[in-house]
Amino acid sequence: MRIFRRLDRWLKDPRAQEITQEEQHCIQSYLQGEDIDLSSLAIASHHISLRHSYQGIVGLMRGEVEALTDLYQGFYYDYAQIKADDVLYQMYTHPDKFFVTSFNQISLALANAITLGCLREAEQLGSCIFRSLDTGQIDDQEPARVAPFLTALYGQWKGLPPRQELTISAPYSAVLEYWQSEETAELEQALLEACEFHIERSQNNSRDVYEFRKDEYWLYPVEILAVLRLREMRGLASPVLEHPLMQTPVGHLYEVRQMAYDPPLEAMFIKSGLR
Fold first, then answer.
1. Rounded to whole angstroms, what are the CA distances from 199 to 115, 168, 244?
2. CB distance 28 to 271 below 8 Å
3. How many CA atoms lie within 13 A of 230 on its CB side?
4. Separation CA 163–CA 148 (nearest Å)
5. What CA–CA distance (Å, rounded) separates 97 from 88?
6. Alpha-helix runs per DSSP H in 117-168
């Protein structure tokens, strides 16, 4: 797969490795008392998240189950960036300095949290999305198919009132209708169509903005896996999806692990008060 080779090349690129080391040093410097602002910590968390996520995906594709550790740490650093951006948005009052939340990024992070069984973080992200919809913090210029679906899915999971401003379109409208059903035939068809949509929208070019444009999501169908995880949590059987996207090690729903935060990240959360 081309995307697998691209991720592997990036991990081996000396400049990419150097950037990760610089960002790790940024967090260490902050922990040692240097005056590092929150926006710099958000950027550092983003770059470190990429390395962990790519390592997790590449490792799993090679059959290394322990690479799940990197997948968890990749999510945790992504979560840290989102939390930092959210705090920064609340701090600034001038429109030019708004840290507008990416609806795509935060909703896919929510799906990742559910997939990995990080339910406390999932609730934090879900609450952030609902509050951001109220305040206008959400960037509504992005593609609006997977993000509204995942927001509505979270709302149904938590028993919240429907958000009237969310438009749920195909293929996700059928998934939302059948994800809680004891019967699996309709859900299977809806999820297979969602798999096709995922592949179709896993692109990144200047002609359009795609829902799964970030490289780590091309092989990692978090929106599908999140549905399967929620059904598992409710004791419902799920269909076996005979689709190439779901037949790689990254498309597998693994047993939830109780994974601690990377120690520097844990220390950053405590010192910054982000949690």
1. 19, 19, 10
2. no
3. 26
4. 9
5. 9
6. 119-135, 146-158
Return d(Cα 113, Cα 181) in angstroms, integer: 22
The answer to whether the beta carbons of residues 164 and 187 sit under 8 Å apart is no
**101's tokens:** 């939340």
228 token code pair: 């399967």
d(C-alpha 47, C-alpha 26), whole Å:
11
pLDDT tens digits, one per residue of 33-46? 999 999 999 999 99
Quickly tell me which residue has 């910590």 as its tokens: 41
Give the type of residue at 217: Y
pLDDT digit string (tens) for 125-143? Answer: 999 999 888 877 776 555 5
State the amino acid at position 8 in one-letter form. Answer: D
Q: How do the domains of the chain map onto residue ranges?
A: 2-272
User: Given the structure tokens 């080779």, which residue do they identify?
Assistant: 5
- CA pair distance 105, 254, nearest whole angstrom: 22
